[in-house]
Structure formats: C-alpha cells, structure tokens
Design brief:
Helicase, Ruva Protein, domain 3, Sigma_54_int_dom_ATP-bd_1, transcription, ATP binding, Rossmann fold, single chain, 14 strands, phosphoprotein, five-stranded parallel beta sheet, CheY-like_superfamily, 3 domains, alpha/beta
Length: 485
C-alpha cells in the first residue's frame, strides 16, 4: 500500500533525552518542518504509530535504548522514513557498525551548525518525497499495466487492420487485384521490394501492407523521402550521427535505419538520390550495418528495405544516373502500381471512402456520391492520381450547401473531362464513334449536359448560357434523352 500524501511541510521526529537539545532543534527546524519531539525510544515509537513521519533525527546516547537500536526498529516497521543519527562521539563503534544494519542515511556530529543541519535535513526531505512518489508511481503502473497492455495490443491490431491489404480499395476486375495478390505473397518473404508507379498511386500504402502482413508487423515501420534532403542531411537522418560530427550536431542522433531495426524501412523517391549517396547506401545494405556520421565504427541493423520511385530506374541505370549494383540490391522483385486512369472502376470506391473519411473528421454528414458525380470523376484522366482525387472531394465538400455533393462543384477540367494537353472539343470528338453528324450530335449532347450539371439542372440558366430559349433547350433535352428523373 503506498504511503499517504505528505503534509504541506515535511515532518520530522526529533528523538533526544535532553530537553534543551529538543528545544534548540525545534526552534531551528520549525519554519521548514513540522516538528515532533520524543525523549526516548518508547515515546518515538508511539509517535511513529500515529503520525506520518518522513525523517527521524535521533541522538545516539539515550537511556534505555541507543539511537542505532531505535533506528533499526524504524527501518523494520517504517522503511520509508529517512533515518539520521546525531552524536558528539566521533569514534562511536556502535554507529559505524550500525550504519548498514539500521539503514542510516546520514551521520551528523555535535555541535551542529544550523545552516549545515538544515541543508542535510532538506536533502533528506527531498529524498523522502522522491521515495514516496516512486512508490505511488510504481503502484499506479502495476495497476495500469494490464490495461495499458490491452490498449497497446488493441492499437496494434487496429493499425494492422487499417493498413492490411483488405484496406486497399479495389473493384472486381481492377488491375489492383493482381498487385495485391503479389503483395500478399511477398509479405511473408523477407526480401527487398521495389515499388514503381506515378506519384499519388498508393505506393506507400502498399509498402505498409507489405510490413503489416509480414512477420515484422510488431516492429517499427519507418519512412524517409530521399528526394527531400541533401546528401549530408539524408545520411545523418538514415544512419545517425555523433555529437560534434558537423556544425549543429549538438547531441548524438539515432538514425532511421536503427529505429527500424527488426522492422521495415521505406526509402521513398529512391531515384532522386545522388551517385555518391548511392555508394554509402549500397554498402549499408550489403553489410547489414550503418556507420553514423562521425562514429569510429559501424553498428549492425536488421531492417527490411522497401524502395519506391516514380522514375524508370532501369532507364536511369542505362543513362548512368543510378548504380546498377544498387538497383539489383533493391529490386529483388518489382511491383508496378497502375495509375488511377487505368483502373477507373476503383474511382467510385476511393472517392466515397474519401468522403466518409472527411465527413467523420468534420462531424458532418453527406449523401452518397451521385451517378452524375461518379460519371464526371471516371471520365477524367487524373494525372495527380489519388492525391488529385482527394482534392476534388475536398472541393465538393467545401462548396456544398447541404448534404448533397454536386457535380457542379467539381473543377471545370474534371467537369468537362477534357485532356489537359488538347483542345476540349478535339479531345471529346476523338473519343466518339460514327460519322461527322453523329459525332457532332454526341458532342452537342455532352455540352448541353455539362451546362445543366454546372447550373444544377436549372434550365433557365443553362439555356441562357447556351444562347437558347427554354423551348429550344427543352427540345434538345427530349432529342438527346437528357431529361432528369
């Protein structure tokens, strides 16, 4: 059971058979301590049984029982109390022999000086406070340990579920199904993997799936963007450094490779590294050890390395910009992540998931995405992939007036679903079949529908934008079957 909270002032029990000594000590201590006095061992024991005493200051020579004998009893029954003995006899063999047995914290000599005595007793009070605090914290941790262990276990399971392959959104027939099947096979194999694909396709998400589906899932997953730092800082980040290794190195730093020891290290944008750094990285991967900057010797590390890049590393090797030996060290097996435009069937799932994620964060509710919105999203080429799709979802949510997310709030380029490098009309015509008349009619139908979507199916505004009367617009709607249910 932990000791009770101490009083506002530290409590001290002065045990001395000489009344004058008791009074002198009381006057010296009463401003900084709550002082109790006793004339002998029996009185002291009685006070200890009813009061919370932090320090026992005891004279050695007393009738009936010596100070060492009393402090021996105190140690057995009240071990948390700090025991100090005071004596005028410097050669007392009893004190010297009893220091360890009675657990005496300090031995003071008479005549004592007030300043020295106060300094010693304040130090003893601080020791008593720290001891009591340590006891309480130990008990709290012991009590909380099962709860904390359960919380950590639940958190780990939640993280594994969040980044498992089942969390990679994909539709039946999606190219991502084959990618995920390959990731599933490779997760259990402790070999390096190279992830390639355009920026924003989800390479880091697949790297996390490789880690959390692997035997290393219980250890750290560490990410470093190799293209974001110059060589010296990147070397320090990955390998660590010793204090004073360079200007600004005020303390030792543990590198990310060491932090990932036993786990997985993702080297993102590996194609952006310099030739000089590639040499150091190759050695670290070959030897299974890293040398912190300024360290006299390397340290071993055991981290699975996954690399990711949006470059064609084979072309970089042929061009002499990437080391061939490092490429083969990183690419035991390569996984290519297809861009979003090659898996349009996944767009509705991903877009709706982004809506659900955002509305949960904002505490708002939105209706499921409409067919109009999905049609527009699937028609766009998404050069920025999932990152660009996320921005479009955020734009719709920011501009929404109610619970319905409207296609009218999409960016003009997404709404038109045109090619960014061609004239919109030419792009739209190139995707149509039939003779010229059929293509022009299909193009007209698209333009009319786009105008209606932009004006949220307000026919008066759409007709005005298109330079038509309401009767003329109604005629075209009937002709092209664009009447909205």
């Amino acid at each position: 059971m932990p000791p009770p909270l101490p009083p506002e002032l530290p409590s001290i029990l002065v045990v001395d058979d000489e009344i004058r000594s008791q009074e002198a000590l009381r006057r010296t201590l009463e401003e900084d301590f709550e002082v109790f006095t006793a004339s002998g061992a029996d009185d002291a024991i009685a006070i200890l049984e009813r009061e919370w005493i932090q320090i026992v200051l005891c004279d050695q020579r007393m009738p009936g029982s010596s100070g060492v004998a009393l402090l021996r009893q105190v140690r057995e029954r009240w071990p948390e109390a700090v025991r100090i003995i005071i004596s005028g006899y410097t050669d007392s063999e009893d004190i010297i022999a009893g220091i360890n047995e009675a657990g005496i914290y300090q031995y003071l000599l008479k005549p004592w000086q007030p300043e020295q005595l106060l300094l010693a007793l304040k130090s003893a009070a601080e020791m008593a406070r720290l001891h009591a605090e340590n006891q309480r914290l130990t008990l709290e941790l012991r009590t909380a340990a099962p709860v904390l262990e359960k919380q950590v276990s639940h958190r780990r399971a939640s993280v594994r579920q969040q980044f498992a392959l089942d969390a990679v959104l994909r539709a039946p027939g999606s190219p991502m199904n084959a990618v995920c099947a390959l990731v599933k096979k490779l997760a259990a194999l402790d070999i390096p993997v190279l992830l390639t694909g355009e920026s924003g396709t989800g390479k880091e998400l697949l790297a996390r799936a490789l880690h959390y589906d692997s035997p290393r899932a219980g250890e750290a997953f560490v990410v470093e963007n190799c293209g974001a730092l110059p060589d010296q800082l990147l070397e320090s980040e990955l390998f660590g450094h010793k204090r004073g290794a360079f200007t600004g190195a005020f303390e030792d730093r543990v590198g990310l490779f060491k932090q990932a020891d036993g786990g997985t290290m993702l080297l993102d944008e590996i194609g952006e590294t310099s030739f000089a750094f590639q040499v150091k990285l190759l050695r670290a991967l070959q030897e299974g050890e890293v040398r912190p900057v300024g360290a006299p010797r390397p340290i071993p590390v055991d981290a699975r390395v996954i690399a990711a890049t949006n470059r064609d590393l084979e072309a970089e090797v042929r061009a002499g910009r990437f080391r061939e030996d490092l490429y083969y060290r990183l690419a035991a097996l390569t996984i290519h992540v297809p861009p979003l435009r090659e898996r349009t069937m996944d767009i509705p799932l991903i877009a709706q998931a982004l809506v659900d994620e955002t509305q949960a964060a904002l505490g708002r509710r939105f209706e499921p995405l409409s067919a109009e919105v999905i049609t527009c999203l699937q028609a766009w080429r998404w050069p920025g992939n999932v990152r660009e799709l996320r921005n479009e979802v955020l734009r719709m949510i920011a501009l929404a007036d109610d619970e319905r997310l409207s296609a009218a709030h999409l960016s003009p380029r997404v709404l038109r679903a045109g090619d960014a490098h061609e004239e919109p009309a030419l792009s739209m015509l190139s995707g149509l079949d039939g003779d010229l008349k059929t293509r022009l009619e299909a193009l007209e139908a698209r333009i009319v529908k786009e105008s209606l979507i932009r004006h949220r199916w307000n026919k008066t505004r759409a007709a005005k934008e298109l330079g038509l009367s309401r009767v003329g617009l109604r005629s075209k709607l009937a002709r092209y079957g664009l009447e909205r249910d």
